Amino acid sequence: MKKVYINSIASISPQKTFENASFLDDIIEYNETVISAFDPNYKEHIPPAAARRMAKGIKMGVVASKLAMKEAGIGTVDAIITGTGMGCMIDSEKFVSAIIDNNEQYLTPTSFIQSTHNTVAGQIALGMECKAYNFTYVHAAISFESALLDAKMQLENDEANNILVGGVEELGAHTTDVHRVINHIKPEAVTISEVLNSNTEGAVFSEGANFFVVSNDRKESSYAELLAVETYNTLEKDKVSEAIKSVLKENNLKPEDLDVVVLGNNGDVEFDGYYNQLSKNIFKNTKQVYYKHLVGENNTVSAFGVWLASKIIKTQQIPAMVNLNDIEATEPNIILCYNQYRGENHSLVLLKKC
């Protein structure tokens, strides 16, 4: 089977990440329970008339995909595969509200048309006039990993050459209120430096879009080789280490071969134990980094973890703001990303310097 490489990356997040020249150099300090994405100037990438008809999630996805394509130096791809847990929530909420307010009559179809989960992938395809394979995975917190795994298998089997893969989430006001009621969002505002010490239930919710061009052609500008993608619906805490060792063994690696591990700690006192037991045991001698204190929690935020790992491998630098322990990693060449959400939908993504 052919090898798979990450040839370009693009991120729109609550931090200033859409300019790939910088690497978390200018951190935005938050003291919130819900944080929005830091927007680029969408008019520079999307015609204003079209942008006005797009909800934020669509704009983030379209622009992030354009940035990834530009960096990869290609005009089209053989497949567009996206992941989203909640889809286009803003238009979904608009349409449902219109049904209630108008007593199910005189409804305009625009919000309904743009409320489907595959709207972002469709808009991206329309923009580049791509009629190739177009698929959207809606698998909760492993939506992005499902898309990445699909792309990986196609490339390994030489069914495609360049594939655009991404994850998109947007914040909807009503949906956010529901998450507050069921304690999925922290009860009190917390600063990014105190997220892990908050000692409360829930997480800081967020939105964003992260896109990658993956290919079976290695370039001088490639970020990393994608070795493995594994997902698990449920795992007991004491079984996570076994799952990690199994994935590493399949790739002829051991835990001590990892230079860095990227963990998805979000400060939820009920579920951060999954990460803490790894930090104290299997990864106690490994460099550990985290990222959700900077960009919050959402169903495809694990794509930002892959963005972070890719940047670390290419730049051979680890920003001080993501350090979870004091262990040094002088040459970060092999990185494992591990994420879970509320004890379910565990994912492992293994990257290697190429």
Automatic annotation (TrEMBL):
Gene3D superfamilies: 3.40.47.10. Residues 35-215 form the Beta-ketoacyl synthase-like N-terminal domain. The keyword Transferase applies. InterPro entries: Beta-ketoacyl_synthase, Ketoacyl_synth_N, Thiolase-like. Keywords: Transferase. One of its GO terms (cellular component) is cytosol. GO terms for molecular function: 3-oxoacyl-[acyl-carrier-protein] synthase activity. GO terms for biological process: fatty acid biosynthetic process. This is Beta-ketoacyl synthase chain length factor. It comes from Aequorivita xiaoshiensis.
